[in-house]
Every structure is written in structure tokens, then in C-alpha cells.
Amino acid sequence: MTSELDQEFEKWRNRPLEPIAFLIMDATYIKVRLDGSVRNCSVLTAIGVRRSDGKRIVLGVSCALSEAETHWREFLKSLKERGIGIPDLVTSDAHEGLKAGLRATLNASLWQRCQFHLQQNAQAYVPRLEQRATLAADIRSVFNAADLAHAQLRLDEIVTKWREKSAKIADWMEANLPDGFAVFSLPEHQRRRLRTSNMAERLHQGIKRRTRVAVLRLITAIHIEIFEDWETGRAYLTI
Q: Phi then psi for 236, rounded to 5 degrees?
């Protein structure tokens, strides 16, 4: 039974794919037992939006012991070989391994850095905790601009404003927030759903919830088996 399932899953992971217009990439970590020790395993996930009908599709998944460039590159290479073509836009976080993999395989696609991650990353540079809400609102005002020109104008304004408080955060925003501007090249009605990798993150949250349930189910089954063996076996102690 397990062998048959493995074959079906392998077939699904390597099935032919249709061309996609947009690609969303993300990774999460789960603990696995390998060679007698518990290791963190990186689960690489790719979600696409088909060119033919605009529907979302889980393109593939791969497991590796890290998010190194070679793992992302091989994963992306396999997606291309299966038929995704060249997406117009790829949305992801700024992990160096993923970025290097994209440069090696999908260099013609625009790269959109996840705006949600950018807002989270910015908080590490805030000099005082009470300034976090203000900074978040300022960054949102940039990303919610009507178009690229207004986004750049608003970025210039908040960089000037924050430079008086912290040159460090001002320099960071000036260097990093434009990575979240690629989505402005798309029609307005497409931007909101493609400006973050939240779709892939929600998928990973579901995987983790189900993994916890599956682990509990497995542990319970083992406990029941042991309990039944003890019930039908000899007494452990004479009482």
C-alpha cells in the first residue's frame, strides 16, 4: 500500500504542467528523523497562476536539508522542464538561495519581493518600539500607491522623514523597498494578490497543522498497539 502511494505521489510531483503567468515561491521548515537524528527539513513549494484560465495551481514541492541555491535551482529547473514556461512575475521573499536560483533559471521573469516580508524586515531597524506602527503605516502608504511613479515619490518622502530619526532605517528603505515595486507593472486588479507570497505561506500553515495531527495520530496508534500487547500479555508485577 505504501509503495503504491509513493508511486502515485511521485507521478503527481512530476506531472506535465501548463504555462503559467505568475509564480509564487516559499519555503518552510519541518523536523524529520534522518539517520538516527532529528533534522530541520526545508519544504520548497511553488504555486502558479495558469495563463489559460487564471486558476491557481500547486506546481510542485521538494524537500531538502537547506534552502541552498542548488536546491532552489534544481527545483526551478524541474518546473521549467515540466512546462511552466517563463512567468511574467515571480513573487517570493529575499532568501539569497532562492534569488540565486531564480537568476540561474528564470532570469527573464520580473522578481517581486514579498511586501509583507519587507514590512516585517523593516521592524528590525526601528530605533524605538513605539515607532513601529508609524513605520508600518508609512511603508503601506508606499505599497498602496496608485502607480510606480507615486510609489517612488512617496518612498522619497518617507525616507526624508525617517532620516531625521534614524539614518539606518532610511538607508534600508531606500535600498530595499523598491524590490517590492515590480507588481506595479501589472494591471491594478492583479496587484493585490501577487504582491505577497502569503498564499504559499497559508498553504504551509495548513501543512504544519495537518502534520501535527498526523504525528499525534501515529503516536496514538503506536500507544494503542503497545497497550493491547500489554493487556494480552503477562502481568508486569505481582500485586
A: -75, -40
Q: CB 169: neighbour CB atoms within 10 A?
A: 21
- As a residue count, the chain comes to 239
Span 1-113 CATH architecture: 2-Layer Sandwich (3.30)
Q: Which of 156, 201, 200 is nearest to 178 (CA)?
A: 156
pTM of the full structure: 0.84
Per-residue model confidence as pLDDT tens digits over 39-96: 777 888 899 999 999 998 889 888 877 778 899 999 999 999 999 999 999 999 999 9
Amino acid at 144: N
